[in-house]
Amino acid sequence: MKILVVEDDKTIATGLEYSLQQDGFSTILCHDVASAQKELSEGIEQITLCLFDLSLPDGSGYELCKLVKERRDIPVIFLTAIDDEVNVVMGLDMGADDYITKPFRIRELLSRIKSVLRRYQKPSQAKTIMDIGNVHINTMEGTVSKNGAEILLTALEYRLLLIFGNHIGQVLTRNQLLEQIWDVAGDFVNDNTLTVYIKRLREKLEDDPQSPTLIKTVRGLGYKVGD
User: Fold this and answer.
1) Phi, psi of 226 (to 5 degrees)
2) Which residues contact 60 (CB under 8 A, 6 or more apart)?
3) Would you give the distance in Å from CA 141 to the centre of its chain?
4) What share of the chain is helix, strand, coil (3-state, %, to 5)?
5) For residues 206 and 210, what is the distance between their CA atoms, to the nearest angstrom?
6) Other C-beta atoms lying within 10 Å of the C-beta of residue 198
7) How far is CA 221 from CA 16, 87, 177, 218, in A?
8) Can you spell out the DSSP letters for 123-186?
9) What phi and psi, each to the nearest 5 degrees, are found at residue 47?
10) Per-position b or e across 24-50, b if 16+ CB within 10 A of its CB
């Protein structure tokens, strides 16, 4: 994640740059509006978050915030020595996501940065189409087919297959499977019942249920689908 830091106090700026890099961020450091505008014009697509000092020698963080928000929906945090309600409101009205007053503790700033970034995280899109060998799952329609022919599954069998489909190549223990399916139908699913459902899925999906190639047993660990 790349953070654009615009701060005219070079001592503060260097300290910020060091602390952010120590916490795993990459940084772009600017000391005035002009150089920040250049960075934003040339590489705003690579920037994850902006830290803008409010008072800069050739302008203010407000105009940089406006520029950013017109071009991309990325977070902006203001750094300022002015603890003034009017300035706080103005900054937030312009689209700033947070506001921290100098002097501040770096741990507090890092916490604010991570909190803002979490709010911007887009929810991952659930897969709507899954293929496990010659088995095709369409979660939008709730259908399962093998070689083009529909396979009828019970609700719990379908849920179990989806768990495998969402963890291709991973070994899933019996406990992990039980935790995710036990209450799907409002009923408790015990270890023996899980064995029965695995067996049923294999009978419906495998070419040879006695020698399964789709839902493979990993001895001493659990089950695995895919490589």
Assistant:
1) 80, 175
2) 33, 54
3) 26
4) 40, 25, 35
5) 9
6) 19
7) 46, 59, 12, 6
8) PPPPPSEEEETTEEEETTTTEEEETTEEE---HHHHHHHHHHHTTTT-EE-HHHHHHHHTTTTS
9) -95, 135
10) ebebbbbbebeebbebbeeeeeebebb
pLDDT, tens only, 102-119: 888 888 898 889 888 887
pTM of the model: 0.54
For tokens 């600017």, name the residue. 30
3-state DSSP call for residue 188? coil
Question: pLDDT band at residue 44, thresholds of 50, 70 and 90?
Answer: very high
> Which one, of 190, 202, 133, lies nearest residue 165 by Cα?
133
Give the 3-state secondary structure of residue 103.
coil
- Residue 207's contacts (CB-CB under 8 Å, 6 or more residues apart) are 213
Amino acid in the structure at residue 100: I
SS3 8: coil
